[in-house]
Amino acid sequence: MAKKIQAVRGMHDILPDETPRWQFLEDTVRRVFQSYAYRELRTPVLEMTELFKRSIGEVTDIVEKEMYSFEDRNGDSLTLRPEGTAGCVRACMENGLLHNQLQRLWYQGPMFRHERPQKGRYRQFQQIGLEAYGMSGPDIDLEVILISARLWRELGISGLELQINTLGTPDERKAYRARLVGYFQERRDQLDEDSRRRLNSNPLRILDSKNPDMAELIAAAPSLMDDLGEESRAHFSAITEGLDAAGIAYVLNPRLVRGLDYYSRTVFEWVTDLLGAQGTVCAGGRYDGLVEQLGGKATPAIGFAMGVERLVAVLEALDQARPAAALHAYLVVAGSAGQAGLILAESLRNALPGLRMQVNCGGGSFKSQFKRADRSGAQVALILGDDELENHCVGVKWLRQNREQIRVNHDALTGFLTEMIGEESRE
Ligand code: ATP
Ligand code: MG
After folding, report:
1. Could you tell me whether strands 264-271 and 161-166 are parallel, antiparallel, or unpaired per DSSP bridges?
2. Which residue's CA lies nearest to atom 29 of ligand 1?
3. Is it the case that residue 1 has pLDDT exceeding 90?
4. pLDDT tens, 332-352?
5. Cα 359–362–367 angle (5° rounding)?
6. Which of 14, 127, 152 to mutate to test the pocket of ligand 1 (most atoms within 8 A of CB)?
7. What percent of the chain has pLDDT over 90?
8. DSSP characters for 401-419?
């Protein structure tokens, strides 16, 4: 036998038993985003490598060691997108969506990062994200956080912690950076290799280190709050006051700097303790500098991205899901009635758009067909044997209730099934 080919390490199949939970999440997200007037944007999974180098920053985990980059047949360096914001900004600029306009957008799709696979960390994973352009005030920051909070409510997810911080303006960060470098320089011997390298190139990223040996050192580092000017302070307190008014609890986390370079002012994460180390299910913030950095006109921007695998794991841990929609009917057909069964099913589907029915294909004895009918979860088995065919009727056998089997004429069948579907929606 030929050797079996397996999926790429860190890339997963989502099997039919799991997809109802995914669909519940995706449907809910779509509905909530729509209710806030956010519109969906779809961009390619491949972009020029340069886009990510210039947006995410050269000295980041993603660009240094996580990107799936390759040369295509023309010798262009392309990269499978590791995140959605860069492509979103590129698409908006390229299509003139940012010219004197406010935009509220969202996206979803697979992202790719060559990380060490573990629970909650994969090489292909799904993100759903939201971005708002052209608004610089704290009101939109607040709206974006309120949307995320509503998502958890509508998904039935409780127990997430909102952590929030501000990174100030680039100037304020410069002052802080100097203090931070001073602090780490004095403790150079306690830094790990990555952090030593970042000490000069990107010291703030040291705060984002995942190395537990560095945790204590990082916890005692100076705080950016002390370097904030009047405006940044006011911006930040407008958000925290808004959260108070909305009754949304939050924790100030001065160590929260986010993995990507392009953030400014507001940053936030939603964290769960249900998933072990990979606890951040949603992360976002303001990135006012990015559009200009990519060659566009300076445009204020804010957004967040959710890790869908992690959220699905939370739904699973909390046993939250919309049950998969059960079949209404399973059509059992006698050998000679195969085609007639499919045609009958077509006319029923035409008449009843909400009908969920499976037709037995591939033959089988009545006994084995009834077994399949039972396993299908259908409410009733409809039976089309030679006798029923001749008499223009079907047998109806209840699979989940103790009821007498009956016969229903073809012309009464639509009415019969309508009642079944109606009963379901009244429940
Ligand atoms: P982490 O700190 O967990 O590495 P990150 O800062 O790299 O996350 P972002 O780039 O902000 O993550 O992505 C937003 C969200 O996408 C994360 O909060 C997380 O839920 C999810 N995510 C990021 N990387 C992965 C991955 N490799 N596998 C699964 N989900 C991921
Ligand atoms: Mg990461």
Report:
1. antiparallel
2. 121
3. no
4. 998 777 789 999 999 999 999
5. 80
6. 127
7. 74
8. S----EEEEHHHHHHHHHH
